[in-house]
Fold each of these.
Amino acid sequence: MHLIFNDQTFSFELLRTLSYAPYGGADIGECLSTAYRIKEGCFDSWYTEWRKTAERMHRLAVESRDQGNRVSAREFYLRASNYYRTAEFFLHGDPQDPRILDTWGSSRSTFREALRLMEGRVEQVEIPYEGASLPGYLYLADQTPRPVLIVHGGFDSTGEELYFEVAAAALQRGYHCLTFEGPGQGAVIREQRIPFRHDWEHVVTPVIDYLLSRPEVDTERIALMGISLGGCLAPRAAAFEHRLAACIANDGLFSNQFGEMGRKLHRGNDADLDDPAYMDRFIRGLMAHHTGVRWAIENGMFTYQAASVAELIDKTEPVTLEGVAHLIECPVLVCDAEADHFFAGQPERLYEALACPKTFMRFTTEEGAEEHCHFGALQYFNHRVFEWLDRTLGVEAASTAR
């Protein structure tokens, strides 16, 4: 699926931004007009044009708020948040770039302004974590004990983005929803400087501990969804955290080892890749010609706090469910996208390794849901996933309607 750009990475990230329109995170014309102004493959042009659009939405939000137009202000703030997030996306090649904190910070602050104008109950939460904290948002359908869906992102997600992707749909179906950022994500990497870790159970356990303290939570029906890289991290957590009633991998990911990726891209003697200096030259050569590789390496070094390609490879070596997946006890939904350019073949590997009750859910080109994490078809994705979750948790769909 190509949208405006021939460059696959730019096209996909435009689709991702546009996909949040059904849940208030984008407007179609705003996204397309922004994309037409961008120089293909140029990270600075991407930043400049999305920043312009975000600032315009931000100004309109403030004007609407000052005029007492609550609905319009909320809508403008939500779109500004998503566009600021999009603008910041390709900036991680220089971790000291001041635009990172400034632009991401604007994405967070505009989202929180929107929260103040929402009708339902939403709480900003800080979950204690190893002497630090994990920021999150607790979305409550009402004040009664209900099933809760915990949602975290992956390699590049922010907590604010998760509202558009899943939380809004959860609320519509009567679920409480807790979204949070872990190590390597959002504020945790940008402000607290805590990088990714592979043993994600140490991240999810304090989140569940927090939920058990809340009277609104049905403690027997807590589910976990991990998105993108989270499709490996969430199953990893479920293998050791048995208080979960269900786990959703969107999309399923068995391993995310950068060394393995390098070997797949290599066309020469694989023995050469055992030389860190050769691997570094090889990967940097790819980065010079492939936008996606450049972004993946730069964002990987940013989120794992790796000083070199070799160090990034070492730090991602433990990111695998080999010898772990069979320990999961709760039901698992493994999602798969027919044309996933990131995870091709990975969902099947995860599904085959599971020994628990399991479901494989494939999304197709015919459905318009074939892209990674089903961007472009989020309403359809949420329809199918929440039907599975209703059945798995024993939730009566009619009783969850708000």
Note: The chain has a mean pLDDT of 94.
Amino acid sequence: MRVLAAQEFSAADAVGGVRGVVESVAPGLLFVVVYLASGQRLTPALVAAGAAALIAVVVRLVQRTPLTQAFSGVIGVGIGVFWAWRTGDASDYFAYGLLINAGYLVGTLATVLVGWPLVGLVLGLFAKDGPLGGGPWRNAVAWHDDRALRRVYTLATLPWVAMFALRLAVQLPLYFADDVAWLGTAKLAMGVPLTALALWVSWVLVSPTRRATPSAP
């Protein structure tokens, strides 16, 4: 989300670079491929997905690069692997991701409904005068008093609401139908590419307002 505060949009930064894409896509892709190639055997697919996530963490440890993205990925994959292993249902590998999207949908929509849109809060946090830039916390929410800015930030938050809602609308029926192949495909197609698109749309909407953000007195 730091990309929203940048002067120029970087597609590479939006998706975490090539490594970020590989780390995000590899576990789910391997799970589906191995599951289908092994004649819908669950254990090899779970091992492949878990191994891919662990390898990403090990490589980052060896290279001494930041672990945040890989570590968060291995937690998500680990929960998916454990859930599917306990139930014996391959579709449950994707259940945790669906719950996360549902939570994000509710949370993001709530910020819009209460008048504190998520994008405005993010820009306040990463703004030069915001708390992560060394300024007081009140600078992070100074934009809230500007109705025009609040309207723009609301519009810029709606692509995220739409993204989470679309993921659930497409993937939930596939989950309940136990269609692992199409569910995995939909998750991959609506993962990194859709996130990058939502970031770009939000960035385009907020770019003209970036210098107009008021500072607290």
Note: The chain has nine helices and no strands.
Amino acid sequence: MSLRYLSARLAQQIDDELMSSIGAFSLDQLMELAGLACAQTLAKVYSTDKYNRVLVCCGPGNQGGDGLVAARHLSMFGYKPTIYMPKPGSKDIYQRLHTQCKNMSIPTLPEGEESLRTALKSSDVILDAIFGFSFKGPIRPPFDSALPLLSASGLPIVSVDIPSGWDVEAGNDAGVGLNPDVLVSLTAPKEGVRMFRGQHFLGGRFVPRILEEKFALNLPTYLGYEQIVDITEASQKL
């Protein structure tokens, strides 16, 4: 059976069950595992010798939290990440994850368009963790100016779960989202990325069998100690 693609409603339901008494995960745990999968994806495709300078773009929600975790792991992998927050998150978990990055001497750009322009000139690859599967358009400031700058940079982009600006079900129909080279879907791919034709990975090794079976996710096998699995060939046959 083929890998199941998730609607917004189903993706939220699975997240809720992962953090319920059934799944028994905390948000911190899920962010740590998701961020590790994102860092591993970037490291697998873009080697540290050629793509050492990573601009990690973090939105204010849980997607941005995944990005902060990824930045910390990338630093431990030998990369030189820099954090860009168009709009910093205000929740306690977000602030703690940011502090963990500061403790690793990972710099954060000053807010504003000019600092982003400057940083793009000295970056090798972008990790896009701005918007998650709950995103609904239109794109508002300051994101409406940030996304075009990221697209125009010409740098390779790795997007987390769903490319920023894409609708979780309609994809990039509006034509305002990023067009990444690499995508790492979390838990299971979302309906909106069926038309994605770049290199596609899945990072969801934390999904317990009880929920995989309940939602008929038909997840692929993760090999060895890998937190990710390449689903490019399978997803492009759909």
Note: The first helix runs from residue 8 to 18.
